[in-house]
Design brief:
Elements lengths: L2 E3 L6 E3 L1 E4 L7 H5 L6 H13 L4 E3 L8 H10 L8 E6 L14 H15 L4 E6 L8 H13 L3 E7 L3 H14 L4 E7 L11 H8 L2 E5 L26 H6 L5 H18 L3 H10 L4 E6 L4 H8 L8 H11 L7 H4 L13
Parallel strand pairs: 3-4, 3-10, 4-5, 5-6, 6-7, 7-8, 8-9, 9-10
Antiparallel strand pairs: 1-2
Helix pairs in contact: 2-3, 2-11, 3-4, 5-6, 9-10, 9-12
């Protein structure tokens, strides 16, 4: 397994990490993702560790805490320093007025709850699951800095922030000498390239590494969706609650990208998801790509995305198929690219 630095920190993380949204299966939304129990989770964790994948990502809202509990049971008895645990909080976790957001009250309770459910005394990477505009960033950052200094959190990150959300927070941390965010868990895929316009240049400039969620486009790039064919019975997109809450993708655009993936997969002897994941691993700022799996077969297939590299020609083919019109002001910057260049793969 390849390891990379997490943003501008000195912390090394595997190029692939494992997402536990399929653990627990509580509630209509997460039931369609998966319902892996502790025994199944232990087997998936074992396969990951055998492959050198040591980072496991979760969140308090995944199955209302059950995903963290299942992950905690799955890692019980393993050396803690051999694991990297990543979790998130901000979204509502209970009915009370203060059981949501990034206030000092909610974040301290959230971290304590995650530590208890995971069965650990520290979190390697703690991320705000979304931006809370009702709480001053100074309150949020000072709280997180205190938790870092107390040894309960090692590194800080965010998820689903806009560019100004992240830059405002980084500026406040710099101004007060508080711990900075080094990771941004962001949606990014061959059928969802919005991350490239604002957040990728910001990440390069500020040393914030991308931890990519839903790298297969909300289940669209699994290789099972085909032009003119019905959705597979087991696709999460069969659930209206899941499909409506995720990124929307035009069918014609999707199948043009799938056609290009099919062509590259045939050239490389790899599967469609392996090609889609490998493309992401070559993008600037990407520190780790979160893979998920309901079963061993899916996990082993996704693990096959590392250890090889797409050729420049194959990357260009996928880039062309997935290209979309640039939003303003990025189309206006094209003639000035020699002074204001967009990030390109190394």
């Amino acid at each position: 397994m390849e390891y990379r630095y997490l943003g501008a920190s000195g912390f090394r993380v595997p190029a692939l990490s494992f997402g536990t949204g399929t653990f627990g299966g509580k509630g209509d939304f997460f039931r369609h993702w998966g319902d892996t129990d502790a025994a199944g989770a232990r087997r998936l964790v074992e396969i990951c560790l055998d492959a050198g994948l040591t980072m496991f990502d979760t969140a308090d809202i995944y199955s209302n805490g059950a995903a963290e509990e299942v992950l905690g049971q799955a890692i019980r008895g393993r050396p803690r320093d051999a694991l990297i645990l990543s979790t998130k909080a901000t979204f509502r976790f209970g009915d009370g007025e203060n059981q949501v957001g990034s206030s000092r009250h909610h974040l301290i309770n959230a971290v304590e709850g995650s530590l208890r459910r995971l069965g650990t005394d520290y979190i390697d990477l703690f991320q705000l699951h979304g931006f809370d505009a009702r709480t001053p960033v100074e309150e949020t950052l000072s709280t997180l800095d205190t938790l870092v200094r107390a040894g309960k959190i090692r590194y800080l990150g965010v998820s689903n922030f806009s560019g100004w959300h992240l830059m405002k927070s980084l500026a406040a941390a710099e101004r007060h000498g508080w711990t900075r965010y080094v990771a941004h868990q962001a949606y990014y895929s061959l059928v969802g390239r919005d991350y490239e316009w604002e957040l990728m240049p910001l990440g390069l400039d500020q040393g914030v590494g991308a931890v990519v969620w839903s790298p297969l486009g909300w289940g669209r790039l699994t290789g099972r969706l085909r032009r003119g064919a019905p959705l597979p019975e087991t696709s999460r997109l069969q659930s209206r609650a899941v499909s409506d809450s995720g990124p929307q993708v035009d069918d014609a655009y999707l199948y043009d990208v799938v056609d290009a993936l099919d062509a590259v997969a045939a050239e490389t002897g790899r599967t469609v998801p392996q090609v889609a994941l490998n493309w992401l691993l070559q993008r600037p700022t990407v520190s780790s790509v979160i893979i998920g799996a309901r079963n061993e077969e899916q996990l082993r297939q996704n693990l096959g995305a590392v250890g090889w590299t797409l050729s420049p020609g194959q990357v260009a083919k996928l880039d062309a198929a997935s290209a979309v019109a640039r939003p303003y002001p990025y189309w206006h910057q094209v003639p000035f690219a020699y002074r204001n260049p967009l990030p390109v793969p190394a």
